[in-house]
Amino acid sequence: xxxxxxxxxxxxxxxxxxxxxxxxxxxxxxxxxxxxxxxxxxxxxxxxxxxxxxxxxxxxxxxxxxxxxxxxxxxxxxxxxxxxxxxxxxxxxxxxxxxxxxxxxxxxxxxxxxxxxxxxxxxxxxxxxxxxxxxxxxxxxxxxxxxxxxxxxxxxxxxxxxxxxxxxxxxxxxxxxxxxxxxxxxxxxxxxxxxxxxxxxxxxxxxxxxxxxxxxxxxxxxxxxxxxxxxxxxxxxxxxxxxxxxxxxxxxxxxxxxxxxxxxxxxxxxxxxxxxxxxxxxxxxxxxxxxxxxxxxxxxxxxxxxxxxxxxxxxxxxxxxxxxxx
Length: 326
Description:
By secondary structure, this protein is of the alpha/beta class. The chain has 2 domains: 6-53; 61-325, 2-enoyl-CoA Hydratase, Chain A, domain 1 (Alpha-Beta Complex), CATH 3.90.226.10. Helices cover 51% and strands 14% of the residues. The protein is built from 15 helices and 8 strands. The chain has helices at 9-28, 33-51, 56-63, 71-78, 120-125, 133-148, 166-170, 173-184, 201-205, 226-233, 240-247, 251-256, 275-293, 298-312, 315-325, and strands at 83-85, 97-104, 107-114, 153-159, 191-200, 212-216, 220-222, 262-264. Strands 1, 2, 3, 4, 5, 6, 7 and 8 form an 8-stranded mixed β-sheet that branches. β2 (97-104) and β3 form a beta hairpin. The longest helix is centred in the first third of the chain and has 20 residues, at 9-28.
């Protein structure tokens, strides 16, 4: 049985029927392929129906699904010969940020991202992908290393936010994120940003600046988590579903507002149901990005990157967004 979400109850029931029929076919040694095909077709149609009417909160749940491809899945698939790097050269190594360099289509790339982990033990070890200042300092160190070797960078975002603990604040959490925001604009090699799950607040922005920003179809990107927003606005974190609607955090919302460049389609039922297809989609998009960026000279690239983000805060852009939402 797969890990089904609350709104996927009809799928859970169909999956159970399919498994029971498969077991019966084996135990009784009879051919039930026609009946199984009917159930599988019904499962696909029901999945398509459910995923065509998702609420923002349901998309949040999909973005957090424990079986979605994680950073290490992308790295192992895209650069299997990778070499990983540790430490920020100031204090320590933060496992919530993982960075590795390897060969992609016979050319080197650097991949850096939030590292949530694939099970409970890894989640705790990696602080659920919520980075301390050391993580962001490691990230910018690796970006500079990539720049030194003229190596393109892929940044993969998946975090609820930067770690809000006392130690993180004492070590300069806000300064580390702000420093990255400034410095990434000066990195001269191509930078692709992909939000693969959760893009939470400054924790995401700390490695969220690039020449192109993409989101997986059922990922989210927001200034605060729905639970945090509900606690502030409604004094009740259980109203997170209501906050999710107000936050406009889905990929289609962000695309409409001009804050991202494109949406990567996910397999039917979400990336967690078909890792291979999702990994292939990301692979093709990275290749397209590199083909697009390679001919540009460094000055043109930096100018476009700066212009891209300055445009988001312009009066004209804000006015257009206000009028479109009114």
